[in-house]
């Protein structure tokens, strides 16, 4: 898309999009459309409403935002412009913001507008509409609107990358492909990348990670990305679960397996966030780790009741091979904490059905051993519409993971507290790090939305982590 900011000779033929707050609808309509005489019975600015009219020889699309709209409400409203109203567009569109629109509201709108051009029809014979050459005029009185538009482009680009990584099929997004993605990123931005193959992972003691990948013909890849800034305020460590497809292993899944290409939603969020932090040149140090494997079944697949090793030196009794994400995260967390001095460590993973059973598809389950970190993530998520809610890490839950034969078992095998006991398992591998958080994003990384007829990636975590980081830089 080609953005023009407050053009001196605006086009008179483009679709003009005007967002309207319900509590200021009359004022905004008067400001933008002079005497349109539009009755409230037709359009009042109610949330998620829209209205098309012709004014001043121009086609106008009014977007109702309701009163005091949240960031996500604005993002979704503008995403609908391209996603659901593409028939109204030819080659140009004008985004005409009222004076009352804040800096954050303009940002949400510009991000959402660009996300509307995304489609999952990658392999259709008839290709989705291409919006790359669309001319977009932005009219706004917001301060530093040009730099704001550039920032919104980078955020949208990162979120679209996260969409793609989750939505593309597992014969395309393999561990090797994720490794190549990271290597290509290092050619574009200030990020250094290391990718361990199975031989190197073995020499590094990543035994739990390797056990999960044993049943697949696709070689696992342990991906490390390092972003360093000369004026860094702090060092953040991220770990993202990268199971590119999950059969469940020998504890094979009995339903919903066609959705298991999404089991690397945590990896997608971490990779896209790394791209975004580097793109925005934020003054932090960032180390991101993505253990990427395929959990498949063959003669070499790891077995229920098997005892495996781990990077942390703990032996693990495998109760369920479908509790594989926590095994690769255990090695990812341990490797990160032992080799890098990160001030805070956050992992993101589509980890448990229990998180969905607790919260449905509304928010992530949040676990942390640091109150300030937990509160910071929760508040950042509230601000950008990527919500989380804390659950406890009480010691009694940890006893559920005791093993008779090994140091710990990977699943307690009981129909309760599944998300909590999974978090307690992970906690055993953080080497008593004082600021660790775990986000179980099983219900929010891959969801039914109004923008597709099937479940698709949501890019959950990208805006959340950006907001969390920038809040600490203020």
TrEMBL record:
The molecule here is called: Leucyl aminopeptidase family protein
Name the PANTHER family on file: CYTOSOL AMINOPEPTIDASE, LEUCINE AMINOPEPTIDASE-RELATED
Question: Which species does the entry assign this protein to?
Answer: Algoriphagus lacus
Keyword Signal present in the record's keywords: the answer is: no
**Superkingdom of this protein's organism:** Bacteria
| One GO BP annotation of this record | proteolysis
- Which SUPFAM superfamilies does this entry report, sorted A to Z? Macro domain-like, Zn-dependent exopeptidases
Which residues constitute the signal peptide according to the record? none
Q: What Pfam families does this protein's entry cite? A: Peptidase_M17 (PF00883)
Q: Name one GO cellular component term.
A: cytoplasm
Q: Looking at the keywords, is Hydrolase present?
A: yes
Q: Which family does it belong to?
A: Belongs to the peptidase M17 family.
Q: Which UniProt keywords apply?
A: Aminopeptidase, Hydrolase, Manganese, Protease
List residues of the Cytosol aminopeptidase domain: 164-465
GO molecular function terms here? Answer: manganese ion binding; metalloaminopeptidase activity
């Amino acid at each position: 898309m080609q953005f023009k900011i407050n053009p001196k000779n605006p086009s008179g033929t483009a679709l003009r999009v005007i967002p309207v707050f319900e509590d200021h609808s009359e004022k905004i309509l008067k400001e933008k459309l002079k005497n349109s005489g539009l009755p409230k019975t037709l359009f009042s600015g109610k949330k998620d409403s829209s209205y098309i009219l012709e004014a001043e020889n121009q086609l106008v699309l009014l977007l109702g935002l309701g009163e005091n709209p949240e960031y996500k409400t604005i993002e979704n409203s503008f995403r609908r412009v391209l996603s659901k109203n593409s028939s109204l567009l030819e080659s140009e569109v004008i985004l005409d913001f009222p004076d009352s629109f804040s800096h954050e509201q303009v940002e949400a709108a510009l991000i959402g507008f660009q996300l509307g051009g995304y489609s999952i029809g990658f392999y259709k014979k008839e290709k989705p509409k291409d919006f790359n050459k669309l001319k977009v005029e932005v009219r706004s009185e917001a301060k530093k609107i040009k730099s704001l538009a550039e920032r919104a482009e980078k955020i949208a680009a990162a979120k679209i990358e996260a969409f793609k990584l989750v939505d593309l099929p597992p014969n395309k997004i393999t561990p090797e492909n994720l490794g190549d993605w990271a290597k290509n990123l290092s050619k574009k931005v200030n990020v250094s990348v290391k990718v361990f193959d199975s031989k190197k992972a073995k020499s590094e003691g990543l035994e739990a990670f390797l056990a999960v990948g044993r049943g697949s013909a696709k070689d696992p890849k342990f991906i490390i990305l390092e972003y360093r800034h000369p004026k860094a305020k702090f060092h953040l460590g991220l770990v993202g679960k990268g199971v590119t497809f999950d059969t469940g292993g020998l504890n094979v899944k009995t339903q919903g397996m066609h959705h298991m290409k999404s089991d690397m939603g945590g990896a997608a969020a971490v990779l896209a966030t790394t791209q975004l932090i580097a793109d925005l040149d934020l003054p932090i140090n960032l180390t991101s780790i993505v253990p990427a494997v395929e959990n498949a079944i063959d003669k070499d697949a790891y077995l229920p009741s098997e005892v495996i090793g781990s990077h942390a030196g703990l032996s693990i009794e495998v109760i369920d091979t479908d509790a594989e994400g926590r095994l690769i995260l255990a090695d990812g967390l341990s490797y990160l904490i032992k080799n890098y001095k990160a001030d805070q460590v956050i992992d993101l993973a589509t980890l448990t059905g229990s998180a969905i059973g607790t919260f449905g598809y509304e928010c992530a389950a949040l676990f942390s051993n640091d109150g300030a970190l937990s509160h910071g993530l929760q508040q950042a998520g509230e601000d950008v519409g990527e919500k989380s809610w804390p659950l406890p890490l009480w010691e009694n839950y940890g006893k559920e993971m005791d093993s008779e034969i090994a140091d710990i078992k990977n699943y307690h095998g009981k129909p309760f507290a599944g998300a909590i006991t999974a978090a307690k398992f992970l906690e055993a591998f953080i080497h008593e790090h004082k600021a660790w958080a775990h986000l179980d994003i099983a219900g929010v990384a891959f969801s039914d939305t109004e923008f597709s007829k099937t479940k698709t990636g949501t890019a959950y975590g990208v805006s959340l982590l950006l907001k969390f980081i920038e809040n600490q830089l203020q």
